[in-house]
Specification:
alpha/beta, Rossmann fold, binds phosphoric acid mono(formamide)ester, 319 residues, single chain, 2 domains, five-stranded parallel sheet
Amino acid sequence: MSTRSSLLRIADLASDDVGRILGTADRFASVMDRDIKKVPTLRGRTVVNLFLEPSTRTSTSFELAAKRLSADVVSIKGQGTSMDKGETLKDTILTLEAYEPDVFVIRHPQVGACAVAGRYTDAAVVNAGDGTGEHPTQALLDVFTVQQEVGPLDGMHVAIVGDVLHSRVARSGIQAFRMMGARVTVVAPPTLVPRHLAEALGVEVSADIRDIADADIVYVLRMQLERMGAGGFVPSLEEYARMYQVNHTRLRPGQRVMHAGPVNRGVEISGAVVDDPDSLIEAQAANGLVVRMAVLYDVLTEAASEPGADEGGIALEAA
Ligand code: CP
C-alpha cells in the first residue's frame, strides 16, 4: 500500500492537517538555528522538482528543503526540457518515473496539471503553483507566518488587495485563512474579482481601498500582467496604482502587510511598504523553507518514521 499522499489544493487539508504540518515546520525551524542544519529525515528518498513556469522563492525553497532533509534531489526548470520538443506532461512524468521518485513537486502554467501528473505516478505530487489554480504551500507558509509573527488567525480580519482573478495565491490563501478562523475581505476593481467569489469562498468583496482600514493583515497581490493578455482589466497601471496601491497613506499604524512576491514596487505596493521593518514579506520568504520541509515530510510520513527517529517520529539528529 502506498504511504504517500499528495497536496494539490487546500481543500485536501482539514484544519488538523494544517496544524500538524505547521507544528512540524516549527520543529524544523529549531533545527535551522543549529550550526549543522541538515537532518537525515528523508535519506534515501528522491524528490523531483519540475518547474515549468518561472519561480525563485518556491523552487529554491523546495530544493533546499529536500537537501536539508537529506533527500536526493533532481531539479528541472523552465526551458531546456524535452517538453520544448513536444513531449507531453504525461510522457515527461513517465520518463522521470524511471528514477523511482518519492515526490514530484510541480509548477505548471495549466490549472489542474498537477492532478493530471498524479495519474501517471505512484509518487506523491505537491502542487507548487498550477496556473491561476492553487498554490497550497504558499498558503501554508502564509498561515505559519501570521501565527509566528502576529498571533492566531482565529478572529483576525485579513484584507486581500488586488488581482484576485489571476491569483492562485489568493485562491489558496482565502481558503486557508478562512479555515483557521479569519474573516477575509477582498478589495479590488470588479474586473479583477472572479464571479461568484463571495458565495464560493465566503469572503466579503469591496471595490473601495478604504475598506482595508480595520484589517489586521493587508495581503497585497501582484498585478499578473503575464496572464492579462491584451489587457482591459484596468485602464492603466498608473490608474490602478492611484486607486489601489497599498502605501503608507492607506495603512494605519500596526497593520501588517504581506505579499507572496515577486513584488512590482510602485504598482500594487509602494517600495517604502516593502522595505518597512513591520512588513512580513521577508518572514514569508524565510518561512517557505521550513514549511516546505514539513510538507515533504508530511507527504512521506510513513517513510520518515524510521528507527532512531526523534520525539514525534521525526529524525532530527544532525546528518
Ligand atoms: N510566491 C511565489 O510563488 O514566488 P515564486 O514565483 O518566486 O516561486
